[in-house]
Amino acid sequence: xxxxxxxxxxxxxxxxxxxxxxxxxxxxxxxxxxxxxxxxxxxxxxxxxxxxxxxxxxxxxxxxxxxxxxxxxxxxxxxxxxxxxxxxxxxxxxxxxxxxxxxxxxxxxxxxxxxxxxxxxxxxxxxxxxxxxxxxxxxxxxxxxxxxxxxxxxxxxxxxxxxxxxxxxxxxxxxxxxxxxxxxxxxxxxxxxxxxxxxxxxxxxxxxxxxxxxxxxxxxxxxxxxxxxxxxxxxxxxxxxxxxxxxxxxxxxxxxx
Length: 257
Ligand SMILES: CC(C)(COP(=O)(O)OP(=O)(O)OC[C@H]1O[C@@H](n2cnc3c(N)ncnc32)[C@H](O)[C@@H]1OP(=O)(O)O)[C@@H](O)C(=O)NCCC(=O)NCCS
Known about the structure:
Blueprint: E1 2-5, H1 11-20, H2 27-35, E2 39-46, E3 49-59, E4 62-70, H3 79-91, E5 96-102, H4 106-110, E6 115-125, E7 134-135, H5 139-150, H6 155-164, E8 166-169, E9 175-180, E10 187-193, H7 196-210, E11 215-217, E12 226-238, E13 248-250
Parallel strand pairs: 4-5
Antiparallel strand pairs: 1-2, 2-3, 3-4, 5-12, 6-11, 6-12, 7-8, 8-9, 9-10, 10-13
Helix pairs in contact: 1-2
This protein binds coenzyme A.
């Protein structure tokens, strides 16, 4: 089995692999990840095909792991373990390496030294709550606010997410929300704000813009107008991730943290 870096020629096969798991990434999604300038995807290749993948995101002091996937027929043969170790090695010295794990996959990561931080729900908007926001603002303000709230810089990622969607600002005070009207997975996030009222206003303004069925990974699922879809666990290697939960109202999504 060979593990190597993926290139754009692989994106079709990677999208097909994710489709089998119901993740349904498109070739464009992989191009977008590439365009952030901070992601690397590794693939495990055997018998002339791609059998597994992992994506690592280099956010400076912090590394993020995503897209950990092995085709069903090849599971349980340490392929996932080898990909994970390769990804961790590629990230190099980091203060923290973090990921969102499905509950079924938690044990796999714990065996590779990860520890549990806390759980977060992916929620679906069902309606019934309005929000308020305006559009505009400077990209530099978004970068600064994001770094303040999540504790690391991820400019390349934010630039791509903002380019794909719309950026909302609170009616007063600092903050922002990115709203992505993807037909396969309409998502609100990140959402950050200086105070809770405007943070929730931004979140609901985003949900209403995308409509019922849109999704967000939120710190607290006990909020109006949503139902929980799944729960994920934030795991980490190294130092516990620092997130300012007084100011964070949604994450960038399951794959970006
Ligand atoms: C998680 C996953 C990548 C592990 O790959 P793998 O090649 O089977 O990994 P390894 O052979 O190194 O380790 C296998 C271990 O993972 C466990 N595992 C974790 N999640 C699993 C899953 N969804 N399906 C099957 N096994 C899983 C197995 O039980 C096994 O543990 P055991 O040896 O104690 O029985 C693979 O199971 C997978 O692609 N799962 C579906 C996608 C997924 O959930 N990805 C994680 C996203 S957070």
